[in-house]
Amino acid sequence: MSQSALQQGFYALRHGPAFGVGGMYATGNVTDTPIFIGAQVPSLHRKQSWAVTPVVGKHDMYTIALANSDVVGAFGTPKNKVTVNAPVVLAAKPQNWRIVKSKTASVSDAYEIHADTCAKCPGLVISVPGVGNELKLVKLDSVKGDIPYFKFYGKST
Prior knowledge:
The chain is mainly β. The protein has a single domain, classed as Trefoil (Acidic Fibroblast Growth Factor, subunit A) (Trefoil). About 0% of the residues lie in helices and about 35% in strands. The protein is built from no helices and twelve strands. The chain has strands at about 10-15, 25, 35-40, 50-55, 60-65, 75, 90, 95-100, 110-115, 125, 135-140, 150-155. The strands form four sheets. The chain has a six-stranded antiparallel beta barrel with strand order 1-4-5-8-9-12. It has a two-stranded antiparallel ribbon with strand order 2-3. The relative contact order is 0.23. Keywords: Protease inhibitor, Thiol protease inhibitor.
């Protein structure tokens, strides 16, 4: 594992660059619906705890599954299709994501979450473009300023 590799554990994922006071966190609500960013409030607490697990034999690859919730799901895309502007949904079957330390973020210990890319869709990163607060895949070359990132705050389950 590389020196900057993320450790397996339970995390709240704060999206950046920061929005609002206290930040906005990845929130899973209903299986097969988009994961969104929401304020860290008591009613959403259980929907903002994520189990991050390395994929054996794949450098910087992880699954991100909702932990300690009555809803089952993980970061995924509809029908496991990775395309530009695809929503990141709470999928029944987890997908692999490349999580790497950000080189552009203006804060320390920030990580980018990239799609496990294919030849037709290289350079996709998770972001919250525009209206709706829903996570989507965007092309890296379309990002202006900091590449979208997440701060991973350790949680107990």
